[in-house]
Amino acid sequence: MPWLQIRIHTTPDHAPAFEDTLLECGALVVTFEDVHDDPVYEPELNTTPLWKNTKITGLFEADADVEHIRPVVEHKAVGLGEIDIDMKIEILEDKDWEREWMDSYHPIQFGKRLWVCPSWREVPDPDAITLMLDPGLAFGTGTHPTTALCLQWLDSIDCQDKTIIDYGCGSGILGIAGLLLGANNMVGIDIDPQAVQATQANAERNKIDPSRLEVKLPPYESDLQADVVVANILAGPLAQLAPTISALVKKGGQLALSGILANQAQEVIEAYEEWFTIDSVVEKEEWVRIVGTKNI
Questions:
Q1: pLDDT of 212-258, one tens digit each?
Q2: pLDDT at 110 over 60
Q3: Of 10, 74, 221, 245, which residue has the fewest beta carbons closer than 10 angstroms?
Q4: Same domain (yes/no): 177, 246
Q5: Is 168 within any annotated ligand binding site?
Q6: Which of 13, 14, 8 is nearest to 30 (CA)?
Q7: Is 185 annotated as a binding residue?
Q8: What are the C-alpha distances in Å from 8 to residues 13, 19, 80?
Q9: Do 150 and 282 touch, CB atoms closer than 8 A?
Q10: ∠140-144-146 over CA atoms, to 5°?
Q11: What residues make up the domain containing 78?
């Protein structure tokens, strides 16, 4: 069936009040979007920052009483000091939303050998190494530049017979890619129980022998180490966790760090220089990947 959609352009300070008003008027769901594509990076803990120009969308059933909703929203706007509120009311056509969502994901190649492919798409190259992965509970499908940087790096190195740790594993995409590229075994570490479930499910989907994979919530054993460690989280935690993550890498082993903006790279490099020789810093769409070799 069709839906009624109400859109309001406002400021971050007023957004929560408009959200409450739309919900009180019967909105089934309210979403927030950025009007001018101004990214919000790495917010402080327990904060939910919005954009300078925020668009709020309330979705209602098609028979919602617009003549009741409009004056309620306008009254709220006046109370907030927004005399000329930018509000648009429109009918949203009925669609097969599941199909729309599925059509937005397609196979992606990383490096020379590796593809990531949703389960409902045909594998582009039957002879390539293909990781079957569907969007789900945990972050990591290969579409974000930081994940892409790590996958490209894994494809470029010799994973054969190595042990790999995926720190902050999310969906398990990086560790599972390492296994498909020849690693003997992989340990995924994450603080989110949903990441444990997602990694195990994705490993099963890719027919990974369960004996080759282990997913852990902290704390883990103190002597855990690997030949290759990949940590795709955020710059702040990466810098704070430098001693912890460094201890997971064997001497002579390789470490790849991502989730880092270009202007944060030096801070992260300085946090790891005590243990690593930095081999490369590669940038993609304002994000960087830092690779080092452990020297002590």
A1: 999 999 989 889 999 999 999 989 999 999 999 999 999 999 999 99
A2: yes
A3: 221
A4: yes
A5: yes
A6: 8
A7: no
A8: 13, 10, 13
A9: no
A10: 90
A11: 3-94
